[in-house]
Amino acid sequence: MSGHSTWPEWVYIGVVVALLVWVGAESWNVERLVDHVPADAEVIKVTGQQWFWTFEHPDGTKEIGELHLQKGKPYKFEITSKDVIHSFNIPDYVVLQDAVPGRINTVWFVPKDTGEFPIQCREYCGLIHYNMRGTLYVEDTA
Amino acid sequence: MRKIFGLSCILTILFVVPTVQYVLAAGDEPGEYLDRRVEIWNLFFRLMTVAFVIGAVVSGTLIWLVLRFRESNPKAKPTKYEEAGEW
């Protein structure tokens, strides 16, 4: 073995391992918090298809290309696709989830600000992908 | 003594400070309606802070190493292999 002291190397290994553990633990914790859907969340069925979004409310009302929600109320999106893989994205609310044919993915959020927010497809899905957009209208609770 | 001091500084920074911070922030745990924007962007900024600090420390160490052990440094002395003419 070499004759030099190895403690700085062990400190270095310790620091690296501790930082990696911290990064993993922080990410896991935030994912756990974000994935926890409130029990009273209203379910909105979201369907992506080339090249538009359809939204279905619990009462059966359907909207195409636009979605009207109420401020301060939790919503759970059940997202699927009819043809190819899309990705449902509301950038202003950091909502992003793939829409996969034959599978239902979920994501939830609470709109905190009223206004109009863009909805867009985030997975290249064909010729008109760039224009597969919608609008989220957040309205004050009546 | 210096080793123990250095080691305790590192351990304090790595474990004690985050633990204290975690305990103090315990009341701030988001409720049922957390704002995912806040959670996700805060995580992003925390991880970016760590990434940039590590980058600064690693590149700083390398710069110091290159400057300190260059041949033209007045403090430089030959290694035992160079002294023995083996290299």
Identify low-pLDDT runs of chain B.
Answer: none
CATH class of the largest domain in chain A: Mainly Beta
The appropriate CATH architecture of the largest domain in chain A is Sandwich
Q: Give the % helix of chain B.
A: 55-70%
| Strand segment count of chain A | 10
> What structural class do you assign from the helix and strand content of chain B?
mainly alpha
Total count of helical runs of at least 4 residues of chain B: 3
Describe the secondary-structure layout.
The complex is a heterodimer of chains A (142) and B (87).
Chain A: H1 7-35, E1 42-49, E2 52-56, E3 62-64, E4 66-70, E5 75-81, E6 86-90, E7 95-99, E8 105-109, E9 115-121, E10 133-139
Parallel strand pairs in A: 1-5, 4-10
Antiparallel strand pairs in A: 1-2, 2-3, 5-8, 6-7, 6-9, 9-10
Chain B: H1 2-24, H2 36-68, H3 80-83
Polypeptide structure, described:
- The complex is a heterodimer of chains A (142) and B (87).
- Chain A is of the alpha+beta class.
- Helix content of chain A is 20%, strand content 40%.
- Chain A folds into 2 domains: 1-36; 42-139, Immunoglobulin-like.
- Chain A has one helix at residues 7-35, and strands at 42-49, 52-56, 62-64, 66-70, 75-81, 86-90, 95-99, 105-109, 115-121, 133-139.
- In chain A, the strands form 2 sheets. A 5-stranded mixed β-sheet of chain A has the order 3-2-1-5-8, with no helix packed on it. Chain A has a 5-stranded mixed β-sheet with strand order 4-10-9-6-7, with no helix packed on it.
- In chain A, strand 2 (52-56) and strand 3 form a beta hairpin.
- In chain A, 19% of the residues are buried.
- The interface between A and B is medium-sized, with 24 and 23 residues.
